[in-house]
Design a protein that fits this description.
Chain lengths: 210, 260
């Protein structure tokens, strides 16, 4: 089963419906004690990094997400959910840097002042490695982005795709059972649905201890 | 590279598409949700719903439409028309819309833009600006109510003000070119696009392929919007996209096989 983590950071209806449309039904979870039932976990979200960390922690979900990751089960972070995988964000929240989940070494940075921020619209993803999440996805296809911050992993092994917005930035990461994508698959039409279906297949193929 | 967007707009009244359409293959061509889903399949980058209902029940009908759209359409969609308060904005976003568009209410009370942006993020606040060239003043001025009411506001300054208040995008319609099919208002679009650092969607006047190109190359628009041209299939989203790509403009290609 795929669980979508609802921690009060945005409307998850589109994500839920997109999984359904893709043929990989997922359930929205508000109680962390149900995370253990899920082979796959999806962490979506839009909004402020600091508030997201706060919400996750207060709901007891940060621990449950970390347990899921520690168990080596498939995980997909979307947009803010990707950024939360990182060690820290420079997003201002009364201090200079807010600690994230610390799964991916690196930080979350704001786009420079010479760019239109947020980046809103369709942009291309260029895969730098083969990955089951992108099975059947042509290189340089367009997906939908809405974001003011981008991730900067310090370890190049994590980089899955890059995207050109002025300079190139890392638009998705993957390693082992962990994936994070900056764009919105639930708003990326057929390409997005294919990516969700691929994640569904990854979750179906997952066996504990494998 | 960030693509230029092609956006069909649906005028909706009491939950139905106004004027009907030429889409014979649709079960119900008057259902805005079914039409939007078809535009999604055909390669539209977004869909805008503009509600022109005047009835008392409009709110419920509109929210229901937004909910059904969020279940069946997997590209971003914007809902505009009659939005006056932060509660209106919240309800529509909660129903599943990605963005809301405000026009008259923003002119009457600009603080609504700031309240919306602070509450929900700039990315979901589109400010629609209707303009007309005023020869005596030698400037574009903001008009409302389909161009029937003048506000006396100079349009470029208003565009800069809405950006400062937190608008994420501007949907610019020129009353001088709207409905004439003789091309977008390139001068007004370029003047406003050059004065702000948020995306500008050009609207009003598309009649042939070259008009879409000119709005982007000469009008400096980030997105091009059209309504009846698409509904009556004088041009399809796919034709427009293939043409723009041939012109060397970065555009997300339309899907194979669905020409709508």
């Amino acid at each position: 089963m795929i669980g979508i983590v609802d921690y009060g950071m945005g409307n998850l209806r589109s994500v839920e419906k997109a999984f359904e449309k893709a043929g990989s039904p997922a359930v929205v979870l508000q109680e962390p004690d149900r995370f253990g039932d899920c082979s796959g976990l999806v962490l979506p979200g839009v909004g402020a990094f600091g508030r997201a960390v706060d919400n996750l922690t207060r709901a007891g979900m940060k621990r449950a997400v970390l347990d899921h990751l520690a168990a080596g089960k498939p995980f997909l972070g979307i947009c803010l959910g990707l950024q939360l995988l990182f060690s820290e964000s420079e997003e201002n929240f009364g201090q200079d840097s807010v600690p994230g989940l610390g799964i991916v070494p690196g930080r979350v940075r704001r786009f420079g002042p010479d760019l239109k921020v947020p980046q809103i619209g369709w942009n291309q993803i260029h895969a730098v490695k083969n990955d089951p999440l992108l099975a059947g996805i042509p290189d340089k296809c367009y997906v939908y982005f809405v974001h003011s911050y981008y991730v900067e992993p310090t370890d190049a092994d994590w980089v899955l795709t890059t995207t050109d917005y002025g300079p190139d930035f890392v638009s998705s990461v993957s390693k082992g059972p962990v994936w994070g994508i900056q764009f919105h698959p639930e708003k990326s039409s057929d390409i997005g649905l294919t990516i969700l279906r691929n994640f569904g297949a990854i979750v179906d193929d997952y066996h504990p201890g494998s | 590279m960030l693509a230029k967007r092609v956006i069909p707009c649906l005028d909706v009244k009491d939950g139905r598409v106004v004027k009907g359409t030429n889409f014979v293959e649709l079960r119900d061509a008057g259902d805005p949700v079914e039409l939007a889903a078809m535009y999604d399949k055909s390669g539209a980058d977004e869909v805008v719903f503009l509600d022109i209902s005047a009835s008392q029940e409009r709110r419920g009908t509109l929210l229901d439409m937004a909910r059904r759209t969020a279940e069946q359409v997997f590209i971003p969609f914007t809902v505009g028309g009659g939005i006056r308060t932060v509660a209106d904005i919240r309800d529509i976003l909660k129903a599943g819309a990605d963005k809301i568009s405000i026009n008259t209410a923003a002119v009457q009370r600009p603080e609504l833009i700031r309240e919306g942006a602070e509450g929900f993020g700039s990315q979901c606040i589109v400010v629609a600006i209707d303009v007309r060239w005023i020869p005596q003043a030698q400037e574009w001025q903001v008009v409302t109510h389909g161009g029937t009411q003048e506000t006396g506001r100079e349009a470029v300054a208003w565009a800069q003000e809405v950006e400062a208040l937190g608008a994420g995008e501007i949907l610019l319609t020129s009353m001088d070119t709207d409905g004439v099919k003789d091309g977008y208002d390139l001068k007004a679009t370029a003047a406003i696009s050059g004065a702000v650092n948020i995306p500008v969607i050009a609207s009003g006047g598309a009649g042939k392929l070259e008009h879409f190109r000119d709005a982007i190359t000469m009008g400096k628009a980030d997105a091009v919007l059209a309504a009846s041209l698409f509904h009556f299939r004088e041009l399809t989203v796919k034709e427009v996209k293939e043409y723009l790509i041939a012109c060397g403009i970065p555009v997300r290609p339309a899907a194979e096989g669905v020409d709508a």
